[in-house]
Amino acid sequence: MADRLFLGDYSYSSWSLRAWLLFRRFGIPVGIELVDFMQASVAEQMAAMVPARTVPTLVTEDGTVIWDSLAIAEELNDRYPQAGLWPADPALRALSRGLASEMHASFGTLRELCPMNLRTAYAETPVPDSLQADLARLEVLWTHALDQSGGPWLCGEYSVADAFYAPVAARIAGYALPVSDKVRAYVDAHLADPAFRRWRAMGLARGATLPWYDRDYAKTPWPGPVPRAAPAVDTGTAENTACPYSGDPVTHLMETDGRVFGFCNAFCRDKTVNDPDAWPEFVALRDGTAAVS
């Protein structure tokens, strides 16, 4: 049995996003199993994976259960030292570990008042003093790290620290929170990151809108890159006969730039509809850099 990563809802589970990025950003294989927030409690659904009671949880091939995001990061670093989860430079590695640890333990007001919601963005959000204090601390941490490393990510190259702060960047963007230009540029780097865009596209394609995450603020379009238009269609002749992801026969269609492409199921189609340029397999098919089958 291969390693399995148990995740929550793509649109709302910030800790799940962190763990997923650790695997996808560093090319580490894992099977994905989703826990449905609309069903029983997460603890009930994870009961067989003792002692886990939350997502994300990693169950390794040998049956080891790792139920904490920071522990997952350290275990992956030990098992895949060549992947480069932490920076090679000792000073930057220490910085990255400090950043990830503080994120893991802090910013309670930001989490409470601005839960991650990748389905919605707000034009303006009230900022009480406690939330401003969290934002001020982020300004100190991120500005210091970017000044020390030179960017573009917190410690130069993408590291565990960036995976841990990706949902924070999503909160700053989605709630239109006030930050400096340097911090805004770092937020924008996350919004443009193809891995982050793929995660968000899957969230829009799968799962329900959960009303308890909504806030009564004026809404605005999502502040990230505007996806290429690619509506689902019911009729047409696809240029490909095999799904770019699975290789299975096509059954569902999408049109983009006057061309029709096929996918093996509704989810493969819809995640592509939501952000076509975020998916390397589809881009290779569309742009002719992979054989069409």
Structure description:
It holds the Pfam family GST_N_2. InterPro entries: Glutathione-S-Trfase_C_sf, Glutathione_S-Trfase_N, Thioredoxin-like_sf. One of its GO terms (molecular function) is maleylacetoacetate isomerase activity. This is Stringent starvation protein A. The chain is α+β, with helices and mostly antiparallel strands. The protein folds into three domains: 4-83, Glutaredoxin (3-Layer(aba) Sandwich); 90-198, Glutathione S-transferase Yfyf (Class Pi), Chain A, domain 2, CATH 1.20.1050.10; 232-287, no CATH class. Helix content is 43%, strand content 10%. The strands form three sheets. Strands 2-1-3-4 form a four-stranded mixed sheet. Strand 8 and strand 9 form a beta hairpin.
Order of helices and strands: EHEHEEHHHEHHHHEEEEHH
- CATH topological fold name of the largest domain: Glutathione S-transferase Yfyf (Class Pi), Chain A, domain 2
How much of the sequence lies in strands comes to: 5-15%
CATH class of the largest domain: Mainly Alpha
Provide the low-confidence segments as ranges. Answer: none
**Main sheet strand line-up:** 2-1-3-4
GO molecular function, one term: maleylacetoacetate isomerase activity
Domain GST N-terminal: 3-84
Protein name: Stringent starvation protein A
Organism: Antarctobacter heliothermus
